[in-house]
Amino acid sequence: MAAIGRIVDNLADFWRRSYTRAYLACLFLFITFLGSFFKKKELVPESYFSNSRNVLNVYFVKISWGWTLGLLLPFILLSNTYKKPWTFVLKRLTSLPVATLIWYFCTEAFCLIEEITGSCYESDTMQVIHGNITTKAACRKAGFIWDGFDISGHSFILAYSALVIVEEMMAVSHIPSSDRNVFLNCLYIALNVIVAIWLLMFTSTSIYFHDFWHKLLGTFFGIMGWCVTYVVCFPKFSLPGLPPKESEEKKDP
Predict the structure, then answer these.
(1) Averaged pLDDT score across all residues of the chain
(2) Does residue 214 have an active-site annotation?
């Protein structure tokens, strides 16, 4: 148990620095540019991750928002109750509906954009168009291919989820090691593992899937969702406000 506590302490010390979280947003943009370059030049060979049926994509990325909410909900409940009234905890929990609204609005908008900009083709050669089929659902039902401006939902949700998680994990920094229970420590480590998976799968998406502009816009909206909430709005309003932090943060060297 002491080993788990030390792992949590080291991770918390890493994430507590505001510039670390800002660098994470920059890292997503960097991976988008570099991965797209590798894809265009075909510098990375086909691999297990180039198959969309890989385990991490099917059982994690496809339900990524479920994983994010499922781990953050108990974590916020446990980490935000330390020396805080329940009214504060309830306020903090509203960050999850806010994040869910952003996720829902963006993903629906991406689908709408793909729908109104797309056309139905007989094959991936894009040579025979079926103008009489005007919706993506009808096109796929007929066994054809719908091609529109497909903003990458993967790039969006993986970047946005990771940024939201690392912000909420800040709550651990105000709880002394001696006052953290095993369950909270395990939840914190699990959240870090999920962030690592999101980074891995974001990299995979950048290297193997989507066009550059589709990925760049998806990443941009993910970063903007985080920036508008945790950087601009949450610090100004008590509902939901920011996660609690240690009262006297260590000074960065």
Answers:
(1) 92
(2) no
